[in-house]
Amino acid sequence: MKKYLFCSLFILSSSIILADGHMDARKNADMKKYENNFAYLSTYTIPAGSNPATLSKSLLKNVEQLKKDGYNNCGLLRHAFGGDRAFYSYCYFDTWEQFAKINDNAAGSDVRQLYGDHDDRLVSVDKKNLGPSKYLVMATYSFGPYLTIGERAERAQIIFDIYDEGFGGCNMMSHVWGPGLEWQIVCGFDSYTEFAQINKKLQPLTAVLVNQKLDILSHSDDIMIRVN
Predict the structure, then answer these.
(1) Which of 87, 124, 159, 210 has the fewest CB atoms within 10 Å around its CB?
(2) What gap in Å lies between CA 148 and CA 156, rounded to an integer?
(3) What is the pTM of this model?
(4) What are phi and psi of 167, to 5 degrees?
C-alpha cells in the first residue's frame, strides 16, 4: 500500500512540476510574442470649450478597436504638462507586413469627430528599455539640416543615454513616416515625488552636455498621464 501511495504522490508531483513548466514556458512565450519594432503615434488636440472626458471615452473606444484590428499593444495618454492640450495614442507592431494586413482590412469609421487638430506618424522603436509607469515624458529632438542622418542619430544617442540613466530605462524612437525628421525619447515615472528625485539625478548627468556641440534644431518636452 505504501509503495502504491508513494508512486501516486510521485506521479502527482511530477504532473504539477510539468504543469508549472508549461505555464512558465507559456508565460515566456507570451512575453516574447511581440518584437514591437515600430509604433503608430497619433495626437488629438482638445477643442476649446469641449469636455475632455467625452473625447477621452471616444478615443478609448478607438484604441480598443485598433487592438482588435491586430496591433500588438495600444494605449491612450492625456496631456499633463508641456505643449498641446491633447490626447496621444500609440500602437506597436512588429513588421510592415503586419501593418499592411491591419490597414488593408480595416473598416472605415463613420463617427462624429470630437477632436480638433490631429496628426499621425510612424516611427522605428530603436531602444526598448521603458518599463510600466503612470506618467510618461516624451522629449522630442530634431537636429541641424547640414548633418547627415547618421550624424543626427549619433547626437540623439548621446542625449538618450542621459535620459536612460536618469530615469532608469527609456525608449527611443526615430522618424519613418509623417511630420518632422525627429527623434522621440520616452521615459516613465509613477509620481511627481519620483519625478523630483529623477531631476536631482539628472542634474550632474546633463552637466556634461552644457559645452557639447549637439546641433539641436528644435526640442520639446511633454508630460502625459495614462488613461484607462
Answers:
(1) 210
(2) 12
(3) 0.81
(4) -90, -10
